[in-house]
Amino acid sequence: MRSRTPARGPRLTKLGLGAAQLGNLGREVSDQDAQGAVDAAWDSGVRYFDTAPHYGLGLSERRLGAALARRPRAEFTVSTKVGRLLVPSPGTAHRQDDGGFAVPAAFRRDWDFSRDGVLRSLEGSLTRLGLDHVDVVYLHDPDDHWEQASTTGVDALVELRDQGVVKAVGAGMNQAAMLAEFVRRTDVDLVMVAGRHTLLDQSARRELLPLALERGVGVVAAAVYNSGLLAADRPPADATYDYLPASRELTARAAALADVCERHGVTLPEAAVAHPLRHPAVVSVVLGARDARQSRTNAERLAADVPEALWTELADLGLLPDGGPGTPPAAPTPRERS
Q1: What are 25's strand-pairing partners?
Q2: How many angstroms separate the CA atoms of 272 and 7, rounded?
Q3: Residue 190 CA from chain centroid, whole number
Q4: Is residue 138 flagged as an active site residue?
């Protein structure tokens, strides 16, 4: 599998494995299936793995660490996130977590982007992962915490990077506007944008992607299926968009995209994976998987041959502006190699 090396940060395979589902996102996943998802991703050439304490209250990190334990550490890249401290909560351990994960609520999530909070969070992540270091650390969903995250949060991460503890730092969010502010105002190396650089939502194109390219900041695209609407060859009637029931308008637009894809011998999910990587600021697409079959499917979708004529027709029909991401003016682009 080819990889891209951003101007600032470690080498990332074009496909990364997002480990939220290893934390029982939405429903339970067995230890065996979680291991199978990582093993199949590895066998497909994936060497970038993303997780967070938030995912299953640490379960995702524990499972990912266990699955990678026998792999050569120099051969893979791991990113995790800070901003939500896991605080033991024995009084609620009998309940189900209310954060979207099928796990006991044995911990609570406390927002904390202070220097101490960042250091404590990373220390906990390393323990759960069983690693002596991670490669990338993102500030996680700081939407309501800009002031602290953009000062003490970023400063703590930059300190860790300057000390050689981590290789790259950044922020990961479900919006593009604040990520653009991080790129503009702070010393970040990477940003992870979820759901805002997809076939159905190109809001990251307006400012974030051009600014990232100009500043040499790599972009990791996540949630490229918008949580489900773009995940099947034809959008089902009960499809979700950003984890809520998809509107009629969005479902109709996804169906129109699928029509064009079929005419070009491409599936809708294959186009959804290919679309973000057309922009030179994007260094990797992160896809989730809950078992080996889904990991293999992710790799097959990345490898699909998507003709340029598809993007031209989508532009002609007004389904994508300017034929998709297009090619910005000449600027340094990520280095790509096998």
Answers
A1: 101
A2: 25
A3: 11
A4: no
284, 334 Cβ separation under 8 angstroms: no
Which candidate, 282, 302, 57, 296, places its Cα nearest to that of 192?
A: 282
Sequence-ordered alpha helix ranges (H) in 81-176: 115-129, 146-148, 154-162
Among 187, 171, 180, 61, residue whose Cα is nearest residue 125 = 61
CB 253 within 8 Å of CB 222: no
Residue 44 CB-density burial (10 A; 0-12 exposed, 13-18 middle, 19+ buried): buried
Q: What is the C-alpha separation between 29 and 199, in angstroms, rounded?
A: 29
**pLDDT number for residue 90:** 97
Mean pLDDT for each consecutive 10-residue tract of the chain (338 residues)? 90 98 97 98 98 98 98 98 98 97 98 98 98 98 98 98 97 98 98 98 97 98 96 94 95 97 98 98 98 98 98 96 50 44
pLDDT at res. 1:
86
Residue ranges covered by each domain of the chain: 13-321
With 0-12 CB in 10 A as exposed, 13-18 as middle and 19+ as buried, what is 193?
buried
> Alpha carbon of 248 to those of 226, 230, 240, 257, 317: distances in Å?
15, 14, 11, 14, 19
List b or e across 200-223, with b for residues whose CB sees 16 or more CB atoms inside 10 angstroms.
Answer: bbbbbbebbbbbbbebbbbbbbbb
- Indicate the CATH number for domain 13-321: 3.20.20.100
Given the residues 48, 55, 138, 241, select the one marked as catalytic. Answer: 55
